[in-house]
C-alpha cells in the first residue's frame, strides 16, 4: 500500500510551480520557467523518496501552456536530460505518479471544439508521463464530464471519443466518480465497457451516491475488478468533508481517527490511496506513520523536529505535552501525537507565544550573526511587539538567516510554512 498527495509540497524550499503570462510567453521565458518547474518537481520527488512516499500526483501546470498553441517548443527534447533524470529516480524508487486534468478537459462535451481541446490536453499529459519514461501503471485521471440533458448520449459520446484517442492515452486513462453528475455506478458501467480502470472517490460517493446505495467497502471491491495487472495496484481517492463549507470542500488536514476507521475496513492491503487535502504531504506522512508496519519512535521525533516551533507559537502547553509524550521510547503514541498537533493548529498564534518561538529560532545563530543582523532582528521583533510590523517580516529574516548559516533543521521547519 502507498499513500500519496497531490501536486504541491509544504515545507520544501523552491518547490513552487511557476506560470507565464500570455504576453510574456516567448521561447526564452517558456524554457526558463519549464526548467524551474522541472527542478521543483525533482525536489519534490527527492522529498518523496526521502520520506518513503511512493504515490504522487504531478501538477498539470508543470509545462506552461503545455497544451496550448502558445507553446510550440519541443519541450520534451529541450528538457530531455531533466525528464530522464527525474524519471530514473521515480522508477528506481518504485514511485507511482499520475496527472489529473482540470474541469475544462471534457471528453464528452457536445461541442466539438471542446472535445478537440480535451484530446489535445490529454495528449499533453501523456507526453509528460512518456518523457519521464513511466509505464502504464502511471495514470491520467479524468472525470466523465457533463450530461447536457441526456446522460446516456453523453456516456455514448465519451465512449466514442475515447476510441479516437491514441493507444498510449487509452492505456493511461482512468475515470473517477464525481460529486454531482456521475456516481460510482455510472462510472463502473463506462469503465467496464471501455475496459479501463475506475478510481473510487469516497467523498464524491458520500455526496453523490447511486440509488442502489452501497458503502465504501462494497464499491471499492467493485472498482477493483476494473484494474488489470498492467494498470498496477488499484488506486482510490480519499478526502474528508470540511465542516461548515460547501459539499465536497476538503479539510485542511486529514483527521487521523476518521482515516483509520476508513482504513480498517479495507480488504486489500495493496491498495494505493491518494489523499486530497490542503496540507498535502503533511497528511500523507501523518497517515503513513499511523499505519506503518514498523512503528518506530524516531518517526515521530522526526516529525516533531519539523512541527515544534509552529506548535510553540500557538500553544506552549501543547508543546510541552508533546515533549512529555515523546520521552518514553518504548511506546509509539502516533494518534495522540497528531491529535495534539491538530488541536494546536485550531488555536490562533498569540503574540507572546510568537515572540517566544522566534527567540528559540534566533538562538540557533545568534552567536554567529553580525551586528547588523542582530540589530535588524531586534527591530523586527520590537515592531511586531508594538504592532508596527508583522510576524511575517520577522520570520522572513529568520528564514534567510537559517539559509545563510546552513541550519537545515530550521530551513525544513514548518514554522516558516504554516500560518
From TrEMBL:
InterPro entries registered for this protein in UniProt: DUF1722 (IPR013560), UvdE (IPR004601), Xyl_isomerase-like_sf (IPR036237)
Classification of source organism: Bacteria, Bacillati, Bacillota, Bacilli, Lactobacillales
Keywords annotated in UniProt: DNA damage, DNA excision, DNA repair, Endonuclease, Hydrolase, Nuclease
GO biological process terms held by the UniProt record: nucleotide-excision repair; response to UV
Protein name (record): UV DNA damage repair endonuclease UvsE
Pfam families: DUF1722, UvdE
Keyword check for Chloroplast: no
Source domain of life: Bacteria
Amino acid at each position: 500500500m502507498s499513500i500519496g498527495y497531490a501536486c504541491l509540497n509544504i515545507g520544501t524550499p523552491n518547490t513552487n510551480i511557476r506560470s507565464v503570462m500570455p504576453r510574456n510567453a516567448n521561447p526564452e521565458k517558456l524554457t526558463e520557467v519549464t526548467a524551474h518547474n522541472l527542478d521543483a518537481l525533482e525536489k519534490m520527488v527527492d522529498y518523496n523518496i526521502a520520506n518513503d512516499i511512493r504515490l504522487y500526483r504531478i501538477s498539470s501546470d508543470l509545462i506552461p501552456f503545455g497544451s496550448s498553441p502558445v507553446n510550440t517548443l519541443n519541450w520534451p527534447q529541450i528538457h530531455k536530460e531533466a525528464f530522464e533524470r527525474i524519471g530514473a529516480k521515480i522508477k528506481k524508487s518504485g514511485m507511482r505518479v499520475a496527472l489529473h486534468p482540470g474541469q475544462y478537459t471534457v471528453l464528452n462535451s457536445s461541442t466539438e471544439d471542446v472535445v478537440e481541446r480535451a484530446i489535445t490536453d490529454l495528449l499533453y499529459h501523456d507526453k509528460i508521463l512518456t518523457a519521464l519514461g513511466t509505464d502504464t501503471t502511471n495514470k491520467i485521471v479524468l472525470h466523465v464530464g457533463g450530461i447536457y440533458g441526456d446522460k446516456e448520449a453523453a456516456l455514448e459520446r465519451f465512449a466514442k471519443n475515447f476510441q479516437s484517442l491514441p493507444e498510449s492515452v487509452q492505456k493511461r486513462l482512468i475515470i473517477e466518480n464525481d460529486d454531482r453528475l456521475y456516481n460510482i455506478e455510472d462510472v463502473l458501467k463506462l469503465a467496464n465497457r471501455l475496459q479501463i480502470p475506475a478510481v473510487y472517490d469516497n467523498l464524491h460517493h458520500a455526496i453523490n451516491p447511486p440509488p442502489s446505495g452501497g458503502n465504501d467497502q462494497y464499491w471499492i471491491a467493485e472498482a477493483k475488478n476494473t484494474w488489470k495487472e498492467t494498470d498496477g495496484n488499484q488506486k482510490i481517492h480519499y478526502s474528508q468533508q470540511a465542516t461548515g463549507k460547501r459539499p465536497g470542500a476538503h479539510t485542511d488536514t486529514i483527521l487521523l481517527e476518521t482515516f483509520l476507521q476508513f482504513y480498517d475496513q479495507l480488504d486489500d492491503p495493496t491498495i494505493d490511496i491518494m489523499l486530497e487535502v490542503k496540507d498535502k504531504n503533511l497528511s500523507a506522512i501523518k497517515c503513513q506513520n499511523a499505519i506503518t508496519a514498523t512503528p518506530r519512535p524516531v518517526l515521530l521525533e522526526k516529525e516533531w523536529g519539523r512541527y515544534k516551533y509552529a506548535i510553540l507559537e500557538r500553544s506552549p502547553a501543547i508543546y510541552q505535552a508533546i515533549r512529555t509524550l515523546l520521552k518514553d521510547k518504548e511506546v509509539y503514541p502516533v494518534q495522540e501525537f497528531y491529535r495534539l498537533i491538530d488541536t494546536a493548529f485550531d488555536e490562533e498564534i498569540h503574540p507572546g507565544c510568537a515572540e517566544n518561538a522566534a527567540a528559540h529560532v534566533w538562538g540557533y545563530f545568534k552567536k554567529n550573526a553580525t551586528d547588523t543582523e542582530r540589530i535588524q532582528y531586534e527591530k523586527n521583533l520590537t515592531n511586531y511587539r508594538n504592532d508596527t510590523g508583522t510576524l511575517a517580516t520577522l520570520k522572513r529574516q529568520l528564514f534567510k538567516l537559517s539559509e545563510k548559516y546552513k541550519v537545515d533543521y530550521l530551513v525544513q521547519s514548518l514554522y516558516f510554512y504554516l500560518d
